[in-house]
Amino acid sequence: MRIAVVGKGGAGKSVIAGTTARLLARRGYRVLALDSDLLPGLSISLGSGPDPVDPPLNQAAEKNENGRWRLRKGVSVVSAVKRYTTEGPDGIRLMQIGKGGKDGIQPIMGAVNAYYKLIHRLGDARTFADWAMVADMPAGPRQLAFDYAPFAREYLVVVQPGAQSALTGRRVAKIVRMRGGAEVRFVANRVKDKEDVAHVERLIGEPVFWSLPADEGVAEAERLGIAPIDHVPDSPTIAGIEEMVAALARLGGNSSR
Asked: What is the CATH number of domain 2-251?
């Protein structure tokens, strides 16, 4: 279960990523949540508390004699997950690239470089062979083009019933498919009825893998800054994500988990 969640900003990526991570943990997986978005989102949807001003991964990197960033001596992907991630609800480990502030990304450049180097080693680390990984990626195709989720085997492309959201979805799906090695699955989010789902399918030009309803309870949780799975655990959206996670597990041959 190696999942990256992508799409247009505001489409609901963080809610889906955070809730998916929580539900996988409750199914018995050890879960590494990966946050490469410079804007807040995943930590709220996970319920792991506010984003740190100084991301832990800043401590994993240093500059060499030529002024280039590198991992500090002795930092491996295994030690980084132990030392430079934070623990969230249900035992999830959260690795963050850091958040841009009033000074831009300069204060977190160590974390940015460490994150990029480490994610390219995750797939080869035997320690994490049976871990689930869920990545919340920023809006648009830029990070996809620079291979910010090389570990992912499934890309959930989140699309709302609108032309701009669908356009972004088609673009990011095209990049993933050009790279190869991963499945693309479209998720229609905040749909009101079957016609909304059909509208999304017309806009993207292919079937939707899963659909999630418009849900005032989830919208209220987002307004309050509370993880939806904690605020409205019995809501239609949480139930829908739970069904989607079960379907993904079956596709991956893990239905007995």
From this structure: 3.40.50.300
